[in-house]
Specification:
The protein is an alpha/beta fold. It is built from eight helices and nine strands. The chain has a five-stranded parallel beta sheet. It has a two-stranded antiparallel sheet with strand order 3-4. The longest helix has 19 residues, at about 205-225. It binds 6-chloroguanine.
């Protein structure tokens, strides 16, 4: 997979050199390049934003540097341009899986007031476009969102994870699909007077699987009732609370 990131704060993307994406690059599964959007400006102040037509607070990112950047990156029709924006579709594991199968992702990190809408329209003409938000809160710019999305996507690239089983078991995918992850324990068996649940030391794999499923279900009911059968919620059926 090829990933390009366009940003006016390219230093923010330094963590891409580390840990997980770094490992994927070392394995030859991933090629990441970060580009400074200001390289595609021509004025002395390297201006990337301007006041909004129609008035209002904040600044809007100018279209020209984006247009030049897309041209310089030789965007192909099969590429996907990802605009990180609080007004995008909410990011989730399904979207991460979808993006992990694409040949090239180009992240366009905007400041939160946004990019001139014509840039998004232009992008839709030259490539696939995703407008993605991390959730219902506001970040100053899309850089941290791009980092989070890249981390979620890169670990799904086939051949990346040492143990693909851990991808299947975790929250939001596989066996416990739609449920939060059950609590986990390791040695010692007693710590600060707290015991590891006996069932986990019983060797009874059926009982362990049932216990984990029940824990995941309770945790989900408590913390994320929205993930449990939305139809049951809609007709007023009460959610079973964890005890
Ligand atoms: Cl993708 N961008 C910004 N600026 N704020 C956000 C976000 C993205 N997702 C949640 N908040």
């Amino acid at each position: 997979m090829k990933i390009d990131v366009l940003s006016i704060f390219s230093d923010y993307l330094a963590p891409l050199e580390l840990s997980l994406p770094g490992k994927a690059r070392a394995k030859g599964l991933l090629d990441i390049a970060v580009h400074d959007l200001r390289a595609f400006t021509h004025d002395r102040h390297r201006t990337t934003d301007d006041t909004p037509y129609g008035g209002g607070a904040g600044m809007v990112m100018k279209p020209e540097p984006w247009g030049e950047a897309f041209a310089a990156l030789e965007i192909a029709e099969s590429d996907t341009i990802v605009f990180t924006t609080p007004s995008g579709d909410r990011f989730d594991q399904r979207k991460a899986e979808d993006l992990s199968a694409r040949p090239r992702l180009v992240f366009a990190c905007g400041r939160y007031e946004g990019i001139d809408q014509r840039v998004i329209e232009h992008a839709r003409e030259i490539a696939n476009v995703e407008e993605i938000s991390l959730g219902d809160y506001v970040l100053n710019g899309g850089e941290v969102a791009a980092l989070a999305i890249i981390e979620a996507v890169v670990r799904l690239i086939p051949g990346f994870m040492g143990n693909p089983e851990s991808l299947v078991e975790e929250s939001h995918s596989g066996d416990t699909a739609g449920l939060l992850e059950y609590p986990v324990y390791t040695k010692p068996p007693v710590w600060n007077g707290r015991e590891v649940p006996a069932v986990l030391r019983s060797g009874d794999h059926g009982a362990i699987a049932r216990w984990r499923h029940e824990q995941a279900r309770r945790r989900t009911a408590e913390r994320r009732p929205d993930l449990l059968a939305p139809s049951a919620l809609a007709d007023g059926t009460p959610i079973q609370r964890a005890v």
